[in-house]
């Protein structure tokens, strides 16, 4: 990767990022459109509408949930549970590919 450092700013050669899509800033409308497209692709149009209705209906503080999710677990325990989930997922993927 070719770079040039000028003072405290580093400039990158844009050709180094060929094939990457960078979105420095998108509008709220674009976020909504892309979000709905992702939901529709994953859940279908009816499922996407249902998901949005559920989110709007039920108050949920994701940040608070994250803070209390693992408060009684050690790092080792969280790591072990994560590896168990990963291994189970890998096994299911292998079975599906067979």
Can you describe this structure?
By secondary structure, the protein is mainly alpha-helical. It has helices spanning 28-57, 62-69, 75-97, and strands spanning 3-6, 9-12. Strands 1-2 form a two-stranded antiparallel ribbon. The radius of gyration is 21 Å and the shape is extended. The two termini are 40 Å apart. The model is unreliable at 1-6 (pLDDT under 50).
Oligomeric assembly: single chain
Distance between the termini: 40 Å
Average pLDDT score: 77
Share of residues in helices = 55-70%
Shape annotation: extended
Largest sheet: 2 strands, antiparallel
The poorly predicted ranges are 1-6
Share in β-strands: 5-15%
| Broad structural category | mainly alpha
Radius of gyration from the alpha-carbon trace, in angstroms: 21 Å
**Structure summary, number of beta strands:** 2
**Count, helices:** 3
- Spatial ordering of strands, largest sheet: 1-2
- N-to-C order of helices and strands: EEHHH
What descriptive keywords fit this protein?
single chain; disordered N terminus; 3 helices; mainly alpha; 8% strand; 98 residues; two-stranded antiparallel sheet
Tell me briefly what this model is.
By secondary structure, the chain is mainly alpha-helical. The chain has 3 helices and 2 strands, in the order E-E-H-H-H. Helix content is 62%, strand content 8%.
List the helices and strands and how they pair.
Elements: E1 3-6, E2 9-12, H1 28-57, H2 62-69, H3 75-97
């Amino acid at each position: 990767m070719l770079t040039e450092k000028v003072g405290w700013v580093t400039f990158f050669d844009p050709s180094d990022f060929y094939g990457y899509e960078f979105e420095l800033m998108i509008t709220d409308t674009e976020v909504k459109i892309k979000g709905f497209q992702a939901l529709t692709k994953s859940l279908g149009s009816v499922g996407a509408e249902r998901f949005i209705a559920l989110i709007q209906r039920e108050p949920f503080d994701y940040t608070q949930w994250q803070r209390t999710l693992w408060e009684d677990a050690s790092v080792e325990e969280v790591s072990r549970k994560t590896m168990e989930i990963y291994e189970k997922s890998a096994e299911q993927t292998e079975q599906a590919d067979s």
